[in-house]
Specification:
By secondary structure, the chain is an alpha+beta fold. The chain contains 3 helices and 8 strands. β2 and β3 form a beta hairpin. The chain is globular and about 40 Å long.
């Protein structure tokens, strides 16, 4: 069972998973993702970063950060950019990425975000399939990789949940309430 925990992006498990993700990018693209990231962008209420645990082992991660246009004409007020989605190779095919993505969408909507946006790549067919099957549609290029021929850009409207919120919460270094089978 996957347990999602809200953590700081500089939490040791998040750092390790992000290093694995960067290695994946080196293999697939010949270099790392060089998108500028400020760790505070993932702090509530303008962002969130989660790590997924199975039997106490960190197996995947992802986050969102508020992007309100201004700096980029293709981004709109109320956008939440999904970043650093990753599930370790030994844990793929079990629905963990879908569960992480759903939690990011849910928490972004609960924070008042109106649309989820993301950039993926032509050498990540499994990621693209996940996003498309989750309701994401192509949008105009934005951000750091707007001119990259290997980049694909997607967006999805978010609907705020009604009723009491459940899911990952931040309480010190690591906390959680969401589990997925």
């Amino acid at each position: 069972m996957l347990q999602l925990c809200a953590v700081s992006i500089d939490n040791a498990d998040a750092v390790r998973l992000n290093a694995e993700l960067q290695q994946e990018y080196r293999i697939r693209y010949g270099g790392e993702d060089t998108t500028p990231i400020d760790p505070t962008q993932f702090d509530a209420p303008y962002g969130l970063f989660v790590v997924g645990y199975v039997d106490g082992a960190a197996v995947g991660c992802g986050g969102w950060r508020a992007r309100d246009g201004g700096e980029d004409p293709e981004l709109w007020p109320g956008d939440a950019e999904i970043k650093r989605m990753y599930v370790g190779a030994a844990h793929r095919g079990r629905g963990y990425a879908r569960a992480i993505l759903a939690e990011l969408e849910r928490t972004a909507a609960a924070s008042g975000r109106l649309r989820a946006v993301l950039e993926s790549g032509t050498h990540q067919p499994e990621s693209v399939a996940l996003y498309r099957s989750s309701g994401y549609e192509p949008i105009p290029a934005f951000g750091h990789y707007r001119d990259s021929p290997n980049s694909l850009f997607f967006g999805k409207p978010l609907i705020a949940a009604t009723g009491p919120a459940t899911g990952a919460t931040r309480n010190g270094g690591r906390s959680s309430t969401t589990t997925h089978r």
